[in-house]
Design goal:
This protein is of the alpha+beta class. It has two domains: about 5-310, Bira Bifunctional Protein, Domain 2 (BirA Bifunctional Protein, domain 2, 2-Layer Sandwich), CATH 3.30.930; about 325-415, Anticodon-binding domain (Rossmann fold). It has helices at about 20-30, 45-65, 75-80, 110-120, 170-190, 240-245, 270-275, 300-310, 335-350, 365-375, 385-390, 405-415, and strands at about 30-35, 40, 65-70, 75, 95-100, 105, 130-140, 155-165, 195-200, 210-215, 220-225, 230-235, 255-270, 280, 285-290, 290-295, 310, 315, 325-330, 355-360, 380, 390-395, 405. The protein is elongated. The structure holds adenosine-5'-triphosphate and magnesium ion.
Length: about 425
């Protein structure tokens, strides 16, 4: 992509209405646009970052047997009445609206009810199960307070997976598989070292659930963690009983602020029974389906990555999340520089490297500041000087010292390693 053709511009003024550093950087670097409190639009760079995070999640969900769908956002009131979750006293963050004929509809904040209802039309026998369905979709929640930019939105991107198992063992095995898949996802996003499986409240069935909490000073949650055991307890459920259950000792734990980046629940048969999703076993007997639901905050992760991978000059994206691989800065406008930079842009693009080509008539200072603010993994310079030396200047965003490379080694250095 050529900078000169991009409608988005960076800005150096800090937005006054954002308190978190991550949100300020995302706005200044042109990744997101604030529509109103808790509501953001994603601009080309931001949309690509979300897509990159989503594709890591998608790969890991597919590996454990997930089937991707996209359920409707408009919700049928009757389905939610069947499980007693339509009432505003039961769910306090519904956005609701009315059709022209007066029929009430909701905007999906989660999808247990419609997904169970949909599945009922396709399944009957024990041979149809287990089933794992997920989506990566915008959710709507009328949050009391929107905070920390995209980390708590009223409209946000979530991955939600639902499991449908025939018995407790089948459910427990899959629950464990999801736990492992989640840790792989956080590892691949560079957050593995600071993300803890956390004992938390909120299970419908078991009274408890598990959250995945990433340590951060902007976190809204407090967790008590054991670094050695890589386990934590949310303050909400911290008690002698829970300590004992987990085999943890008070004195081995430290308390830290953390951000909930994922949450997994055992739902038992609450929603499947309420919406009459059953299966018949070998003997022709009707049996209940055991459900689990498994969420990850995709846009929240983007906000957290921006908060975590940053320095005083701007964002420092991990390579597999960055919207482009390299920021190509053309310095000067001599015909030779224009020609050489244009050719390099083409060659790198043909080799599969994603290049943001700064072909604007702007100063070196401006281009370098933008490269740092936007935070792509590499900055590449073409100038009269580099042409004279027959070398290109390549610098990692995370290091201060540039390297001099010839064309061949440059193309090689920027070739993408295969993702696992
Ligand atoms: P929280 O306690 O932060 O409100 P939650 O328990 O309501 O989260 P879930 O309903 O389990 O969250 O949603 C799954 C995931 O979606 C959460 O773990 C979180 O990462 C993300 N998420 C939840 N609410 C928001 C929001 N308002 N904005 C952005 N991401 C969110
Ligand atoms: Mg919530």
């Amino acid at each position: 992509m050529r900078r000169s053709q991009l409608f988005v511009k960076t800005r150096y003024q800090e937005p006054a209405d954002e308190t978190s550093k991550g949100a300020q950087l995302l706005i200044r670097a042109g990744f997101i646009h604030k529509e109103m409190a808790g509501v953001y639009s994603y601009l080309p760079f931001g949309k690509q970052v979300l897509a990159n995070i989503a594709s890591v999640i998608r790969e890991e969900m597919n590996k454990i047997g997930g089937q991707e769908v996209d359920m409707s956002i408009l919700q049928n009131k009757e389905l939610w009445e069947a499980s007693d979750r339509w009432d505003d006293t039961k769910v306090d963050n519904w956005f609701k609206s009315k059709l022209v004929n007066g029929t009430e509809v909701g905007l999906g904040f989660s999808h247990e009810e419609p997904i169970v209802n949909m599945l009922r039309g396709f399944t009957s026998s024990h041979k149809d199960f287990p089933i794992y369905i997920y989506q990566i979709q915008t959710k709507f929640r009328n949050e009391l307070r929107a905070r920390s930019g995209v980390m708590r939105g009223r409209e946000f991107l979530m991955k939600d997976l639902y499991s449908f198992s025939r018995n407790q063992k089948e459910h427990d095995d899959f629950y464990e598989k999801v736990t492992q898949a989640y840790m792989k996802i956080y590892n691949r996003l560079g957050l593995g070292d600071i993300t803890y499986k956390t004992f938390a409240s909120g299970g419908v069935f078991s009274k408890y659930s598990h959250e995945f909490q990433t340590l951060s000073h902007v976190g809204e949650d407090t967790i008590y963690l054991s670094k050695a055991k890589k386990l934590a307890i949310n303050k909400e459920v911290y008690s002698d009983e829970v300590l004992q259950h987990l085999g943890l000792k008070k004195e081995d734990l430290v308390d830290e602020k953390a951000v909930e980046v994922g949450n997994i629940f055992s739902l038992g048969t609450k929603y499947s029974d309420a919406l009459k999703l059953f299966y018949t076993d070998d003997n022709g007997q009707r049996q209940s389906i055991i459900m689990g639901c498994y969420g990850i905050g995709v846009s929240r992760l983007m906000g957290l990555l921006a908060e975590h991978f940053a320095d005083d000059k701007g964002l420092v994206w991990p390579a597999n999340v960055a919207p482009f691989d390299v920021y190509l800065a053309r310095l000067g406008d001599s015909s030779q520089v224009v020609k050489e930079a244009g050719e390099l842009y083409k060659r790198l693009t043909q080799a599969g490297t994603l290049v943001l080509y700064d072909d604007r008539d702007a100063s070196a200072g401006e281009k370098f500041a933008d490269a740092d603010l936007i935070g792509l993994p590499y900055r590449l310079v073409v100038s009269d000087k580099t042409i004279e030396n027959k070398m290109y200047e390549l610098k990692k965003r995370s290091s201060a010292k540039p390297e001099q490379l010839n064309a061949e080694s440059l193309i090689k250095a920027l070739a993408k390693p295969k993702q696992s």
